[in-house]
Amino acid sequence: MSWHFIRVKIEFVKVLIAGVGHPNLKDLSFGQVLLPHLKQQNWTKDFDLENLSFGAIAVLQWFQDYPGKYDRVVFVSAAERTGRKPGTLEVNQWKFAPLDEVAVQESVAESVTGIISLDNLMMILQYFKALPPEVVVLDLEPVDSNIGFECSPEITARFDEFSEIVRRACDVEDGNKNE
Predict the structure, then answer these.
(1) 136-154: b (≥16 Cβ within 10 Å) or e
(2) How far is residue 20 CA from its own chain's centroid?
(3) What is the distance of C-alpha 66 from the center of its chain?
């Protein structure tokens, strides 16, 4: 009897799911409000779920504290954009397009004043090379952006649907959940 050994290299992908949102503005809070719902689900140790709803410079420093920790980041956020139907959730790969330095400086200036903006955040993180190679952005068109601690009933009723979309963006299928 002879034994044959096969060397297998298993690589794990470390994924960050980051909620980004305006505190207390109903659906504009979507990224941070969906996080507790996501945290109730089963995720492997290869997933971190964080609320990054603070200034872009602080988020940049947070990423710089952990260089190379993540292979993929999935940002979950909401923004009012022209031409989108309320309640639409767009899922896009971040393209790492060339940046205009003046626009980056304007984003930094806005961020320092406390404005929470996914657009500013993405531009600043890209400029300072703080993003991993794979970035997915889930961007919701709000139904209601008035003052309030919870998302609108129309959005809250779809949290399970949105959770599945987040899982697909992470390449996690429902049957592959590990505890």
Answers:
(1) bbbbbbbbbbeeeeebbee
(2) 7
(3) 16
In a domain, 22, yes or no: no
The confidence score (pLDDT) of residue 177 equals 37
Q: Is the dihedral of CA 120, 124, 127, 130 positive or negative?
A: negative
| Domain enclosing residue 37, as ranges | 28-170
The answer to whether residues 171 and 22 touch, using CB atoms and an 8 Å cutoff, is: no
Is the pLDDT assigned to residue 15 strictly greater than 80?
yes
Q: What angle do CA 164, 21, 97 make, to 5 degrees?
A: 80
Domain count across the chain:
1
66 occurs within a structural domain: yes
Residues 58-117 pLDDT 10s: 999 999 999 999 999 999 999 999 999 999 999 999 988 989 999 999 999 998 888 888
Q: Provide the whole-model pTM.
A: 0.87
**Cα–Cα distance, 63 to 75 (Å, whole number):** 13
Q: In what order do the strands lie in the sheet with 134-140?
A: 47-51, 15-19, 72-78, 134-140, 89-93
Q: Does 11 map to a domain? A: no
User: Got the DSSP string for 86-107?
Assistant: TT-EEEEE-------HHHHHHH
